[in-house]
Write a structure and sequence with these properties.
about 425 residues; about 75% helix; mainly alpha; single chain
Length: about 425
């Protein structure tokens, strides 16, 4: 007797969503690196104060959050191609406004940078970042960590890969020319990527995930207002903020620290690459080993980074300093990949993009605390003393606090 068998389900073709996501976030990662444009702008406008420039970064982070949150809220109602296409247009307009700066109009030019680059490009970067992570999560529900890690690695490499190109354009042709070139490039790249964005249909069947949610919490479909009322969210935010403060304190000064202790400045570049690569490594670890094992590994790396750097600074050991920098780059860089999986598995897929945007608030908080703390420590270092030891002590304290927050968060989650 012939038995009727169910044909094997062939997984959908989806690799192009990762390739397109990498293209988009590689470019948007350049926009996020305010420091690339800050120095050339300060050279043109010496009357701009450090406070003026710091305010620009704060506006950029605020608009990044607004763009990410708005896109997340609209993602269930508006086609992804339309959302990303709108981000491309806003990006183009932002860069074009910024390109109209004039050396003889410092006040007006500062306003144009705030409106064009900080607001326009910040909104577009937040929207594009949220959209690409959302598409990766939708098309790779069985490999959420690895998929997010791949495109977030491209995001982290944006500064490294395209930073030198942007600096070269600004040095050769001036900042306005570079802004116009980036406006056109952004419109073309994001516009091209937008053409291929589609949500998976109800008939699409994906392979089973290696790790599944074991408790009911992961099956919930919470919205942002509900997420904000949960304890795990605030514990995770505390963990994320502390890690980001630790990373910002040191990673942004990696080249200067390396040179002070006698290492090559290229160590700063290596740390940036490690920071980017860790996003895939920890994302893949999430898929294979789960949240608890990944948090444990991350906590170990963070504690090791603080210990290596403090001991290395006290003993003036270049190898220990370099190892500490690499560990910190990895521990700090893993945060976005962990956040992607945590928010989706903890509170469901329906409102994932809106919920995920909430964690970008940690960037604003750390962007305010870390530079001010670093400046205070540097200003209050005794003449002739090692200027980095106090920073390393602060790093150890923040790392210990972050590990404590991570342990509490891990114990209160159900994934």
């Amino acid at each position: 007797m012939n038995e009727k068998t169910t044909p094997a389900v062939k997984p959908p073709f989806r690799i192009h969503y990762l390739v397109l996501g990498c293209m988009a976030l590689l470019f948007l990662g350049l926009i996020y690196a305010w420091s690339i444009f800050r120095t050339p702008l300060q050279a043109i406008f010496p009357e701009w104060t450090a406070s003026n420039l710091s305010l620009g970064y704060t506006i950029l982070m605020l608009c990044f959050f607004i763009g990410s949150f708005t896109t997340g809220k609209l993602s269930n109602r508006v086609h992804p191609a339309i959302l990303l296409g709108a981000a491309a247009v806003i990006l183009f307009a932002g860069f074009m406004v910024a390109s109209t700066i004039r050396a003889d109009d410092a006040a007006g030019s500062l306003l144009k940078i705030y409106i064009g680059y900080c607001c326009g490009c910040g909104l577009a970067a937040g929207a594009g970042h949220n959209m690409m992570l959302g598409m990766a999560s939708k098309w790779f529900p069985d490999k959420q960590g690895a998929a997010a890690g791949i495109i977030l690695t491209a995001y982290g490499l944006g500064t490294v890969v395209l930073g030198s190109l942007a600096r070269g354009m600004m040095n050769e042709h001036g900042v306005p020319y570079a802004f116009r070139a980036l406006a056109i490039a952004g419109l073309v790249i994001l516009g091209f990527v937008a053409l291929f964005q589609r949500n998976p249909g109800p008939d699409v069947v994906f392979p089973a995930s290696r790790k599944t949610v074991t408790k009911a919490t992961g099956a919930l479909d919470y919205g942002p207002s509900q997420v904000l009322r949960t304890l795990p969210f605030w514990l995770y935010m505390l963990w994320s903020i502390l890690k980001t403060i630790a990373g910002t304190l040191v990673v942004s000064n990696a080249a200067s620290i390396a040179e002070y202790y006698g290492a090559a400045a290229v160590v700063g570049l290596i740390v940036s690459i490690t920071n980017a690569a860790s996003r895939f490594i920890f994302g893949n670890c999430l898929d294979r080993k789960g949240f608890r094992a990944t948090v444990l590994l991350n906590n170990i790396v963070m504690i090791a980074s603080g210990a290596f750097m403090l001991i290395g600074g006290l003993t003036r050991s270049i190898p220990l300093i370099v190892i500490g920098l690499l560990c910190l780059g990895a521990g700090f860089g893993s945060t976005p990949s962990i956040s992607v999986v945590f928010f989706r598995k903890m509170w469901g897929a329906k409102n994932y993009q809106a919920n995920y945007s909430l964690c970008t608030v940690s960037l604003m908080v750390s962007a305010f605390i870390a530079p001010n703390l670093s400046g205070y420590l540097q200003d209050h270092t005794a003449p002739g003393a090692d200027p980095w030891i106090s920073t390393f002590v602060a790093l150890v304290i923040v790392c210990v606090l972050s590990v404590g927050a991570g342990i509490l968060c891990e114990k209160k989650t159900d994934i």
